[in-house]
Here is the input.
Amino acid sequence: MPNLTHIGKLRRRDCGAVADWLIEHDDSALELWSQRPLPADSPFAKPETHAVSLGALVGPYWARRNFVEVMTPV
Here is the structure.
């Protein structure tokens, strides 16, 4: 990622300038990624750790038109 100089909106105004970039390996990410709403038919959503609810899996997350049945971590 040596060419990455800015992130986010308004890069043209020099907002979001990146001074340094470091990528680290995180072993906990292998389990923690599932601690978010998952599709209702996801094999990773276990009844012991997730409950059925309504939510959006795509943005905008607040828009009711995007609400579907999801499995939410409890």
